[in-house]
Amino acid sequence: MSESAASALLPVNATLGVLLAVLLVAAVAVAAYARLSPDGSRGRAREIAVAGVRATVQLAVVSLLIGWVVRSVPVLLGFLLVMYAVAVRTAGRRITANSTWWWVALPIAAGVVPVVVALLLTGLVPLKGIALIPIAGILIGGALTATVLGGRRALDELHTRRGEVEAGMALGLLDSEARLEIARPAASDALLPGLDQTRTVGLVTLPGAFVGMLLGGASPVQAGAVQLFVLVALLAVQAAAVAVVLELVARGHLHREQGEHPGTP
To answer: Between the CA atoms of 206, 212, 214 and 218, what dihedral angle is there, to the nearest 10 degrees?
Structure first.
């Protein structure tokens, strides 16, 4: 993307910094005033503030490092592993606060690895940081979101309807089968954000990949093809992630202790 195109989209100046600060303060204030936390406290407001500050610091560091990362394949692979590890830690601690959190490494990998390998083997994406990091980041982020939503919804449903699980077992179902029947409908809701984004693309929103390609000088057809790939790939990644995390919950590998409330990653 040329410098003039980028500045036309969003100039980086003092005005942008002030507006970002105002928006973050507004988000914190609204969350605190409405007590938008599961327990009715102001905990979510603090999370929003911390998330905003963390995002600022992390993006600043990545912006400084990205030029160095793209020059070396070993460093590139190490950077991708760091992205994956942070996603696993974030998703795991968001779902459960006990030692089972590391199991979420499986659903995230199950969704992302096959797609990335297919892209590399077909040559559609070269083993270069400037191309691979954005694609991998989008896919890992999508898998993280689906894993968190699917895992939390499944465990919440099992807690609320534990009597039905016991009833299913009394009728002869295995523990994992009874848990699966109860958790599956709730976990499947994790696919709804991706489905809605794909259904409404071009009508409600023009996602970042499409806009970025246009500003970089690509034709509308090229930009549309890239965005379509991203959306369809995300559907595949998220479907795999939800399926695996649901299976982990059903088998008891991912679980919560009585009275446990997952904390902030």
So the answer is: -130
Selected residue with higher pLDDT from 9 and 213: 213
- At residue 76, the pLDDT reads 85
Choice between 11 and 189, residue whose per-residue pLDDT is larger: 189
Q: Which residues contact 111 (CB under 8 A, 6 or more apart)?
A: 139, 142, 143, 146, 236, 237, 238, 239, 240, 241, 244
Lowest mean pLDDT among 2-11, 34-43, 99-108, 209-218: 2-11
Q: Which residues 6+ apart lie within 8 Å of 191 measured at CB?
A: 146, 235, 238, 239, 242
The tokens describing 75, both together, are 């460093």
Residue 182, judged by CB atoms within 10 A of its CB (0-12, 13-18, 19+), counts as: buried
Helices (H) and strands (E) in the chain, counts: 11, 0
Q: What is the DSSP string of 54-84?
A: HHHHHHHHHHHHHHHHTT-HHHHHHHHHHHH
Residue 6 pLDDT exceeds 60: no
- Report how far apart, in Å, the C-alpha atoms of 69 and of each of 60, 66, 78, 134, 193 are: 14, 5, 9, 13, 32
Output the pLDDT for position 2: 46
pTM of the model: 0.82
How far is it, in rounded angstroms, from Cα 5 to Cα 7?
Answer: 6
